[in-house]
Amino acid sequence: MTLAPETALAGLDDFTIEVPSWAYGNSGTRFTVFSTPGVPRTPFEKISDAAQVHAVTGLAPRVSLHIPWDKVDDFGALATHAKELGVRIGAINSNLFQDEDYKLGSLTNVDERIRAKAIAHHLDCIAIMRETGSRDLKIWLPDGTNYAGQDVLRGRQDRLADSLAQIYAALDDDQRLLLEYKFFEPYFYAMDIPDWGTSLLHCTALGERAQVVLDTGHHAPGTNIEFIVMQLQRVGRLGAFDFNSRYYADDDLVVGSADPFQLFRILNEIVETGGHTPSSAQNGWAINFMLDQCHNIEEKIPGQIRSVLNVEQALAKALLIDRDALAAAAQAGDVLGAHAVLMDAYDTDVRGVLADRREARGLPRDPIAAYAASGYPQRIAAERVGGTQASWSS
Amino acid sequence: MTLAPETALAGLDDFTIEVPSWAYGNSGTRFTVFSTPGVPRTPFEKISDAAQVHAVTGLAPRVSLHIPWDKVDDFGALATHAKELGVRIGAINSNLFQDEDYKLGSLTNVDERIRAKAIAHHLDCIAIMRETGSRDLKIWLPDGTNYAGQDVLRGRQDRLADSLAQIYAALDDDQRLLLEYKFFEPYFYAMDIPDWGTSLLHCTALGERAQVVLDTGHHAPGTNIEFIVMQLQRVGRLGAFDFNSRYYADDDLVVGSADPFQLFRILNEIVETGGHTPSSAQNGWAINFMLDQCHNIEEKIPGQIRSVLNVEQALAKALLIDRDALAAAAQAGDVLGAHAVLMDAYDTDVRGVLADRREARGLPRDPIAAYAASGYPQRIAAERVGGTQASWSS
Amino acid sequence: MTLAPETALAGLDDFTIEVPSWAYGNSGTRFTVFSTPGVPRTPFEKISDAAQVHAVTGLAPRVSLHIPWDKVDDFGALATHAKELGVRIGAINSNLFQDEDYKLGSLTNVDERIRAKAIAHHLDCIAIMRETGSRDLKIWLPDGTNYAGQDVLRGRQDRLADSLAQIYAALDDDQRLLLEYKFFEPYFYAMDIPDWGTSLLHCTALGERAQVVLDTGHHAPGTNIEFIVMQLQRVGRLGAFDFNSRYYADDDLVVGSADPFQLFRILNEIVETGGHTPSSAQNGWAINFMLDQCHNIEEKIPGQIRSVLNVEQALAKALLIDRDALAAAAQAGDVLGAHAVLMDAYDTDVRGVLADRREARGLPRDPIAAYAASGYPQRIAAERVGGTQASWSS
Amino acid sequence: MTLAPETALAGLDDFTIEVPSWAYGNSGTRFTVFSTPGVPRTPFEKISDAAQVHAVTGLAPRVSLHIPWDKVDDFGALATHAKELGVRIGAINSNLFQDEDYKLGSLTNVDERIRAKAIAHHLDCIAIMRETGSRDLKIWLPDGTNYAGQDVLRGRQDRLADSLAQIYAALDDDQRLLLEYKFFEPYFYAMDIPDWGTSLLHCTALGERAQVVLDTGHHAPGTNIEFIVMQLQRVGRLGAFDFNSRYYADDDLVVGSADPFQLFRILNEIVETGGHTPSSAQNGWAINFMLDQCHNIEEKIPGQIRSVLNVEQALAKALLIDRDALAAAAQAGDVLGAHAVLMDAYDTDVRGVLADRREARGLPRDPIAAYAASGYPQRIAAERVGGTQASWSS
User: Fold this and answer.
1) Rounded to whole angstroms, how far apart are CA atoms A9 and A15?
2) Which of A178, B360, C105, C193 could form an S-S bond across to C143 if both were Cys, CB 3.0 to 4.6 Å?
């Protein structure tokens, strides 16, 4: 039985996407960072920009912070600023890749002084979580090696396990550790957490409040990402997504812009288990659907709005899949029939019905146009003159 | 302190490589299978060929069988035949990819009758293990799907877990289950065991006598395979290797022919933990170093000899690494210095010292030349006329 | 100015897709070929099946033949059979991968006798072109090497150039040579025509009636295929497509099933130059849009119908792109705006309007349902009993 | 007939490698640039460092410059400085990726003012060539797009062709244009010169003094690079190498460190045609063997020395290949025999004989140790304090 669209799309009601503070600052490739008028100069201005995304979409009520990029004297004031703008602080992200000390590793460094410093940085982050009400500590470990023989791989894993254990022990009971993996970059020979298997092994060793972060841009070419989504849900360890797009290497593009069908297949696995609804939480923890992307050459706030809408669109299509028909066709061994059920949902144009939903909730039908017409872009371009624009290096 | 070569190479003394019966038959691509004079027509002839590899190298005392390709009326007689030729039966490999029933899956099939049949096939294999003295049941699961939506991925995992549990329960206490993974092929959209993480999850669920098989040709482009070797050893679950080479997709080339440095790096991780020595066995189980390759266009027995020698050469070089110097350089943060220690071992020409070792053990200095001069190739070409040559499809 | 859909879709009026005779026979991976009830046993039966695809879609009036798979005593009779069923013979494909002689190469073989034989095979194909009215000789060269050092790469290119020159010289003035490239497979180390650059170099050396075939499954991971489409059109050498889909290696899936957005981007480049219309012909030669795919586990005729419809759908969406708006946004440096113009066309659901067009032309609204209801599948399953089913190996 | 090593290695006599000025400055990933004591602050200091590499290896008599990074008031003085240190200025590299204007393209930019500026930058480079005696203008075009639809791909090619024609026209008769390609980066969707085919098409359109640069790190995964080396030599358009290593994405590692066998295969194709000797020059132009790499975490001058020695070692091994034996085995269809001929050369340890050669020429047997013992590293670490260290961003 196919659900009527309006019934199926009720699955969108409680769905939210978290946006990253760093998407509003300047970013770039290893070759250069281009600057853009109106870019925020402070964490407060980043939050203001993020709030614009939520204002026109109703989908993005949380903002991830990155420490120390978003370090402020008074995190309580930052949380209040967010609240006044209708959003709140989400995950706290640690930074292990910009300190000179971390040249040869942070949580895996063979130098105990440096390793202790990297662990201590996370205790600072946990303190910020308490000040901001954040429950998610997200760790992307950029550690690795560039040359075979540069270091003993096994020793790095053992040190990593020990570092993570110290961090995990410092968390409160209502806080969790989200551990990301990345196939390559910034190191070229061996990343210390290159795949979901490694991340999962560490999470399992830590305890129930350690979960894996799946960044859609962090896999080898040809990897079936939705399979991993399924597998991590199956073992109750899919903690969060970092959404973005990529064609080959970097992972900064608007989610859904490079392979919208893949995004749909990923969200299909989410809908299959109800993972998009808060009630699906395992051990009290729901999946945190986050963006992790930058806008190197395009406008930043519109880039975020587009991204949020792309995820919503893919989820809407995934909700339209007639799962009974698909399962029946699969059971009957009707390969093309089952595939066709999936494609029928994907081929549906949901833009109109999503605009209707927005309108019914007092939101603009066309969020990008509404933002452009809001006067905000002109205002920040005019006001944010002087000072240093936020970027990856500040 | 650098070991003298003769001391370091003592690590070769107990090292053995298992060869696959199917390497002696015809094989090919999806486009065609070319035939070769002298190819075996029976499992007994395959064992005879495998014994030639051991006779000239002293390295390959076991032969893997593949069921039903190697089905004989009297497996005791086959084991005796092997013994008389100085070798013995190694792992038993099941076949889940050539029965019409398995078109849409075997251990994962949604049809309970077919799934039961696939499980029962493994009970037959276990019976053959008992008859031949084999302790390793190797499962490569070729199941998967070609189209998104064709089947529910989660359901396939659950059925797989149940199938494996039934098989594992049938094993004797001195038998283990070796579970292989493969990134792609023969299915194009989603393999049901695509990566080491999935294989490990199933092994962990099964019990201590379930271990992962790492086939060197079964990864996405750019994957750091030695990292996986390290990680699986770290959790005590590296059961076996399937050695071979590949450049892009197929995995049939002579091991060490496409990237000899990678093979060396893999064996470096083995030597790091002593995994090449029987005394390293975890829970009583040593790593089984097997070849899994075919010789589509080259001569088959010489292809196997070359392969065995390539593994020996890579292991010898890995044994020469000055691990103290490498660790000291790594500890000092001397990136190029540590790398240079590794490269010094790799750049060493060990062919002469390995020939000396062979000679000292009554083996020919040049195994390939010795085989060519043995009269065996001429004899099998003359004798093996009539009957059907063994191949993947018989 | 956006065209009204009905105006834009006029671009579909003269668009046709050629289907391959081998899609109706059995096929498989290197591991096995599964059989299917009702599969054709003769080239005549293959043509009959292909005609069903055209009957319900109106899009597929030509059938490619493969020699010797489609060898018949009387090609005139085969052409007449096709004509009576409303279709005609398209490209003639040579086969260089199933003769024992071609184990180490065909048009590149170092053995002059074998090379001459491979050339002569093409003269036979040209004779068949004359008998069937075919104007396209399509060559996919499966030659290559498995091991570094196996042969001198340069010598193979020189022999290839000479072989192609002999074949080209035998063509009539109204016949062309279509030269395909393939990144990998069936050889593992070096393919002799691995990329579009190599194919183009040979075509340029041959003359104006030599053009490149772009098979959508024949590229390295991450390759931007639409860029190649653009580049080959720019130099007037895009002769034909072989459409299909793949995720990693094999290239047998229904076109548009793995990455429908990529197919849309490819057709966007076609529409950009008008390459979908016969009037766009360069030097009198239009692009031949062909399918080259097999249906290993799914039903074959429905698989072809789905494929043809997927191409039509992607082309329809590409025709809807508001090119003036896109160019204006690009000119203005509006990155997200220009991208949004493209996505607006892609996100449009064109299934209804395409069904309307079919109905207006006397075709069924739902071709797959119409085929299923036609009685044809039941008839062939009942009638085609006895004899050998067509497959890659017969 | 196998050449005696001393005879074969005579092929090294005239072989030289060009080193890049930017290898001596700081560099990094998109995440950060780590600083190193002793890094040069001026182009003069970079030349001094490069001269150290030549002093201990005798292999690196030229230094590539990058404009504007190496801009000085008096290029004649810089050339004299080089000459005094025993080296000279090599290729001049233009920079099209760090000016804010180039955010959406340089030689392809839709804005005619920006495009003219990018062309004019090359006229400046040509002037510098005249001042420094450089004959090679090297262009790596970083242009591309991040999003499908962002710009019309065809239009970008046409503007590129026009820009290159203007630059080419400004060259003197004894100067050539070297045009590089890169599969991906810094743009994510479509690079404007992604492959050798595109580079070659533009070179062919320009004239005989336009040639392709092959950077060993600029290909899709799985690409057979030595095939491209062969093909470009075959059409007389291989102008230069940019040597480096990579595992997945970035291309900054020491050449030969990731896949030394690949480097050997590449140099095998060079030796096959004699391309390593100046006498092989086509149209008066020899292949320029350059390094293009950076040393993010390792010491920079030792990194360059190691790189130069790795290329020398690979070339020495390639010179040892018994080409008569290989050709004879290939002619006989002896697949493993021909491969074994190649591997015999590769497996040879040439470190000793290369040290002997150096000693015979008055060079240190161990260049890295000699550099470490020279006092130079301590001197620059002490002297180069204050001022800004050279890096990609200055």
Assistant:
1) 11
2) C105
Q: Which residues pair with D212 in a beta bridge?
A: D179, D238
Are A157 and B231 within 8 A, CB to CB?
Answer: yes
How confident is the model over D249-275, as a mean pLDDT?
Answer: 95
Q: Are B144 and B191 in contact (CB under 8 A)?
A: yes
Largest CA distance in chain A: 66
Cβ–Cβ contact B5 with D under 8 A:
no
C351 touches chain B (CB under 8 A): no
User: How many CB atoms sit inside 10 A of residue B193's CB?
Assistant: 28
Mean pLDDT value of segment A17-24: 98
Return the CATH class of domain C11-321+362-383.
alpha beta
Does domain D12-383 sit in CATH 3.20.20.150?
yes
First to last CA, chain A: 54
Q: Does C369 touch chain A (CB under 8 A)?
A: no
Q: Percent helix, strand, coil in chain A (nearest 5)? A: 45, 15, 40
Q: Does the CB of C259 have a partner CB in chain A at under 8 Å?
A: yes
Q: What residue of A is the nearest CA neighbor of C249?
A: A222
CB contact under 8 A, D253 and A188: yes
- The 8-class DSSP code of residue A211 comes to E
Name the minimum distance, in Å, from the CA of B28 to any CA of chain C: 7
Confidence band, pLDDT 50/70/90 cuts, at residue C280:
confident
Judging contacts by C-beta atoms under 8 Å, the chain C residues touching residue A257 are: 339, 343
- Provide mean pLDDT across the span D215-220: 97
Structure-block tokens of residue D82: 């080089």
> Considering only CA atoms, which of A199, A104, A84 is closest in space to residue A146?
A104
Angle between helical axes of A300-320 and A351-360 (0-180°, round to 10): 110
Where do the H-state alpha helices sit in chain A? 5-8, 43-57, 75-84, 112-132, 153-170, 196-206, 225-234, 260-273, 300-320, 323-331, 335-347, 351-360, 367-373, 376-383
**CB nearest to A227's CB, from B104, B190, B230:** B190
Q: How far apart are CA D156 and CA D108, in angstroms?
A: 5
Is A142's Cβ below 8 Å from some Cβ in C? no
Which of the following CATH numbers is that of domain B14-321: 3.30.565.10, 3.20.20.150, 3.40.50.720, 3.60.130.10? 3.20.20.150
Residue indicated by tokens 């560490």: A202
Distances (CA, A) of D250 to B192, C301, D30, D31: 32, 45, 10, 13
Average pLDDT over residues A259-274: 97
Q: Do D148 and A257 touch (CB under 8 A)?
A: yes
Amino acid at A173: D
Shortest CA gap D321–chain A (Å): 27
What is the rounded CA–CA span in Å between residue D354 and residue B274? 34
Structure token pair of residue B240: 């076996």
Give dist(CA B232, CA D96) in Å, integer: 46
Fold designation for A14-320+365-383: TIM Barrel (3.20.20)
Q: Which of C352, C384, C382, C350 is nearest to C365 (CA)?
A: C352
CB contact under 8 A, C185 and B29: yes
Pairing of the two strands D136-139 and D176-180: parallel
SS3 (DSSP) at C335 = helix
Residue B313: what residue type?
Answer: Q
Question: Residue A379: what pLDDT?
Answer: 97
Is residue B278's pLDDT more than 80?
no
Q: Where are the domains of chain B?
A: 14-321
C-alpha span between A38 and A42 (Å, rounded): 12
Longest dimension (CA), chain C: 66
> Which residue type, as a one-letter code, is found at position D116?
A
Q: Is the entire prediction scored with pTM above 0.90? A: yes
Distance from C-alpha of A245 to C-alpha of A293, rounded to nearest angstrom: 8
Please check the confidence at residue D327 and state whether its pLDDT lies above 60. yes
